[in-house]
UniProtKB/TrEMBL annotation:
SMART domains: FA58C (SM00231)
Protein name: F5/8 type C domain-containing protein
Keyword terms of this UniProt record: Signal
Stretches the record annotates as Disordered: 65-85
InterPro entries per the UniProt record, alphabetical: FA58C, Galactose-bd-like_sf
Lineage: Eukaryota, Metazoa, Chordata, Craniata, Vertebrata
Entry keyword annotation includes ATP-binding: no
Species of the source: Hucho hucho
Signal peptide: 1-18
Record-linked Pfam families: F5_F8_type_C (PF00754)
Length: 217
């Protein structure tokens, strides 16, 4: 929603301020080089760089990155850092080439056969070695890895917003649960790093009124 706040200042001039959401634009995953994509594993014909949103190989029915099935036959498991199995849980990793402010993820499934990731974890890093798992913060409990809801069909795009902005160069998406197989395509949302962004950008226009009111829309 947009909130307009009108307040009186000197000389009986009023300013109208509109609050507009910011830091929500594609981070350019589609234009990243193939070398920016890596993964825990992949099936033949479904490499990491096939994980770009809307990516389509006309020679295949199923689209997107897909890990080795041995990596996910036991999903869902517990939190990524708590995984104790002999097989590492699957992930798709992106190198954005420089730090970005990340505020959300767009995800898409395999395009056919009702294949998609229905929930996932997120991890972030600035050097590609030390990883931070995005956590759910609770006032009355210890933080725990947040499980994000993903897709509900194989073609439409699911929009996921983070509660808190994260600055990172490297991002991992770790499927938690899935339908009929893990096939994933994605885009990251956010804004450029190095700029002091607030959740809202305030725009003001002054008008020559002598009475001031507050409007909620």
């Amino acid at each position: 929603s947009v909130v307009f706040v009108v307040y009186q200042i000197y000389l009986q001039v009023c300013c109208v301020c509109a609050c507009i959401e910011e830091c929500w634009s594609p981070r350019g995953v589609q234009s990243l080089p193939d070398s920016s994509f890596s993964a825990s594993s992949h099936q033949w014909g479904h490499p990491p760089w096939a994980g770009r949103l809307y990516a389509r190989d006309p020679h295949k029915d199923l689209q997107g990155w897909s890990p080795d099935t041995e990596q996910y036959r036991n999903l869902p498991t517990g939190a990524p850092e708590g995984h104790s199995g002999a097989v590492q849980p699957p992930y798709l990793q992106l190198d954005l080439l420089r730090p970005h402010n990340i505020t959300g993820v767009l995800t898409q499934g395999g395009g056919v056969f009702d294949t998609y990731v229905s929930s996932f974890y997120l991890q972030f890093s600035n050097d590609g070695r030390q990883w931070y798992t995005y956590q759910q913060l609770n006032a009355d409990a210890r933080p725990r890895a947040k499980v994000f809801l993903g897709n509900r069909d194989d073609r439409s795009v699911s929009y996921t917003r983070l509660d808190r902005m994260v600055s990172a160069q490297f991002v991992r998406v770790l499927p938690h649960d899935f339908q009929n197989g893990i096939y994933l395509r994605l885009e990251l949302m956010g804004c450029e790093n190095g700029v002091c962004w607030t959740k809202y950008l305030q725009l003001c226009v002054c008008i020559g009124l002598k009475s001031c009111y507050i409007f909620y829309i």
